[in-house]
């Protein structure tokens, strides 16, 4: 488990101190109530001993916090001479990701020294400083979440269901970020911050509730009856948590699918080809404002002109419609939440009428 927690170390571009600058190591340092210490070693004969030792020190520090390292380590190093001796000073910014990707900044190299044939590096995080620097960030996130919650509840009371859904969706990633930071503060500071945060499960329920209350109308222009596109569109939207209302006189969202089939072309004896285009769009009906859109193109073939057109329409309904609606819904939820939302990246994949 420990090995899995240290998932990746991204190579740092750090200046190396030469072996001649290294003093012998002092007594071992250990994590205590004031600092969190990580130590790493690398053979002095290695080409990049300093960088390797530093990365191992950070990995050791990360293990103590049960974190994954998933980002680069930057350092500026300056040499200065004091009292006839050469010292190295490092200003290191690093980001250590917890299992939920919480960021830790402000680690510093305490010592680079020689231990036998190895270079040893000691990296430290000042617990108190980390808490002082990051607690205001957590409090700010909590304030943003309260504001989004109030806005969503106000929108729900006013019957603005799409606006409410947008606020709940925007709150989800911020709540996850706050939870990660809160956990990291607890790990480093030794106690849970006294900041009230909504739980991820409660926000997920609010999103699902907002989705279930949304009134969605599906408009289809399809040259065939019964409509193949209607079945494909309704199946896809339901798989994304957006069931189509049987009657939707005042919908919150209108999704439209329009199929256009060109006249068939005879390409050989007994073979006709027809081109088809599917346009998918989503709009807010109150403002008549388009939110998202996508298109798909196919070719159909058959023994006569009618068969070729029917084949093109079948391909639009069964192959193109799910892909076009996947793209449409990804755009829609990205617009509503303010960022790409993986939950709806491919909602229609495998959804077939």
Biggest sheet features: 5 strands, mixed
| Separate helix tally | 7
The fraction of residues assigned to DSSP E strands is 25-35%
| CATH C-level label of the largest domain | Alpha Beta
Number of strands: 14
Series of H and E elements: HEEEHEEEEEEHHHEHEEEEH
Give the integer mean of the pLDDT values. Answer: 78
Radius of gyration: 29 Å
Provide the CATH superfamily of the largest domain.
ABC-type transport auxiliary lipoprotein component
Kindly name the structural category: alpha+beta
- Show unreliable segments: 1-20, 67-103
Using the 3D structure, state the CATH architecture of the largest domain. 3-Layer(aba) Sandwich
What is the gist of this entry?
This protein is α+β, with helices and mostly antiparallel strands and 353 residues long. It is built from 7 helices and 14 strands.
Your description of this structure?
With 353 residues, the chain is of the alpha+beta class. It folds into three domains: 2-126, no CATH class; 129-212, no CATH class; 215-344, 3-Layer(aba) Sandwich (Rossmann fold). Helix content is 39%, strand content 30%. The chain has seven helices and 14 strands. It has helices at residues 2-5, 49-64, 127-157, 161-189, 200-213, 228-239, 305-337, and strands at 10-13, 23-24, 35-43, 67-69, 72-82, 85-93, 96-98, 108-115, 118-126, 216-221, 253-261, 265-268, 271-284, 289-302. The strands form four sheets. Strands 10, 11, 12, 13 and 14 form a five-stranded mixed beta sheet that branches. Strand 13 (271-284) and strand 14 form a beta hairpin. Helix 4 packs across helix 7 (305-337) and helix 6 (228-239) runs parallel beside helix 7 (305-337). The protein is elongated, with a radius of gyration of 29 Å. The two termini are 43 Å apart. 36% of the residues are buried. The model is unreliable at 1-20 and 67-103 (pLDDT under 50).
